[in-house]
Write a structure and sequence with these properties.
The protein has 2 domains: 189 residues, Metallo-beta-lactamase, Chain A, CATH 3.60.15.10; 128 residues, Rossmann fold, CATH 3.40.50.10710. The chain is globular, with a radius of gyration of 20 Å. Strands 7-8-9-10-11-18-19 form a 7-stranded mixed β-sheet, with helices on one face. With 333 residues, the protein is α/β, with parallel strands linked by helices. The C terminus is likely disordered. The chain is built from 8 helices and 19 strands.
Length: 333
Amino acid sequence: MSEPVLKFTERGIFCPAADVYIDPWKPVDRALITHGHADHARAGMRNYLATDGAAPVIRHRLGEINLETIQYGEAIVAGGAKFSFHPAGHVPGSAQIRVEVKGEVWVVSGDYKLEEDGISVPFEPVPCDTFISECTFGLPVFNWAPPGEVAADINSWWRANAAEGRFSLCGAYSLGKAQRILAALDPQIGPILCHGAVEGTNEILRAQGIELPSTIHVTPELDPRSVAGAFILAPPSALGSSWATRFRGASTAFASGWMALRGVRRRRSADRGFVLSDHADWAGLNRAISETGAERVFVTHGYTSVFRRYLEEQGYDAGIVETEFGNDTEDEN
């Protein structure tokens, strides 16, 4: 029996034909990275390969590393395998990784979404025999509204707060979601402020040519009285910290796919919860899997048991991959 194209090991997803790993969570010699979020791009690898769009953020996060880049659709051969990176639509530079060995094709999706967000190259289905799919939001309850509706709700909330002279303080993950919100804001309403973690990422993406509205970096010297009614973007962990106390009387919100669950909204104790995610919802997962044409699907990080059973009922050969990848809840904390 021939060796599988990819194996699931304690260090990560491994390709024996090329002796490389995809998004490994333990140190290895050669790592192919789908995107720059901390649960997929980890420190300690001897060599990294990522898209040219993901590389700047990865370097920002990991420092001096040996990182080579590749463009979407460009093919490379290593050992007995051929690799190429394809748009995942998750965050800027994010990729699915196609692996072909002796004519058999597997695709590792990393994280992905199908909605266009204005800052990322949109998701492209990649035909394959086996698809490794995340299922962070793999339940029918997760059903995203059109992005334009969410943007209108956020701007309406901000406009109402600004009219009362209140700050609008919104928690969103610093890479991807924060810039997605920025791109959707109406700067005519008032000034836009960013926590240092968000602003650092903004600067990197602007340098890559991604257009974002003008923002003000929140520093200790900033006088809140000079920016009354501002919209403030920060990592969710900052909302309950001393950093946020300077914006007295602020209305608070969180932007996350988890806001679709009432229990999560209550635990966050925010004034508003905006259902906005950089992961595919239930319909998006099913559509993406269908468009690959894959007969075998492995699911990872999320509602894996439920989603695998559902896929088996649809006629797929389905399995679960245990990984150390995180999800939005972990990212945002």
